[in-house]
Amino acid sequence: MSDYVNKLRSQFSGRNCYNNFGPCLRRIEVQGFRGIKNINLNIDFPIIAITGLNGSGKSTLGQLAICAYKKPSTAIDYKRQYIKDFFPISKADPFPIDENAEIVYIYETDDIKKKQSVTVSRANSAWSGYKRQPERHCFYIGFTVYIPKVERRDPSVYGGKNIQLTEVRSISENTIRKMAKIIGNKYDNVIFQGISHHGRELEIGVATRLGASYSENNMGFGEGRILYTVDKLENSPQKSLFIIEEPETSLHESAQHKFAKYLLEVCIRKQHQIILSTHSSIIIDAL
Prior knowledge:
This protein is of the alpha+beta class. Helices cover 29% and strands 29% of the residues. Helix 6 runs antiparallel to helix 8 (253-270). The longest helix is centred in the C-terminal third of the chain and has 18 residues, at 253-270. The mean pLDDT is 90.
């Protein structure tokens, strides 16, 4: 594990940083969001773990970070997220942000002596500053990245007799090995099976283990969430930004440790930047 940490520290330092990670976030200055009056987050490592009491602002920092980049010009079927997506104003929440709320994003550049600074603030009811942001793929892995289909009345469960099987999306052997190592199971194969139900096109994870196949409808919560998380980390473009909410959810202590080790390793290979919130001392110690 220490070898991973040392290698990432070297990749993220000095002139190596931009060459390896592109216009990554190096600092976030937050003012006036959900009771956060003024806080600065320095980012000096590719993986940052934010921990603290419930309601202390961990999710707020992650949600603001995911809004730091423009949609890449080459992106297909990709939708960027904006501050308004996470901080809606309504009768129930008339003041989730202060009148003078703003966030300053500071990015790495190819000039080691000069960082890029972009301020996003409200001009009347609209937010300004987005156009100056660099481009990058950003992915938010919150709790909804994997909700067991049986809990959300998915057609694969409640319309099971009427679904049509469509194309199979194969998962690489490397991704299956990564998932298996974290969970502690040996899989013969894992795929995503396409399904169609009354015009809706969906997919469902299917694993083969110990001679039997079972879909995610019969997976444990931690197993299913790791499947979706590892698949997203492995198949997203190089140098993507990931915000991950409490990855320890439903994971055994051993799996938490192995998942933290996996995050270090995937950042070395794919130059991702990861900001995660966590209550797990195991993940914090591992990182």
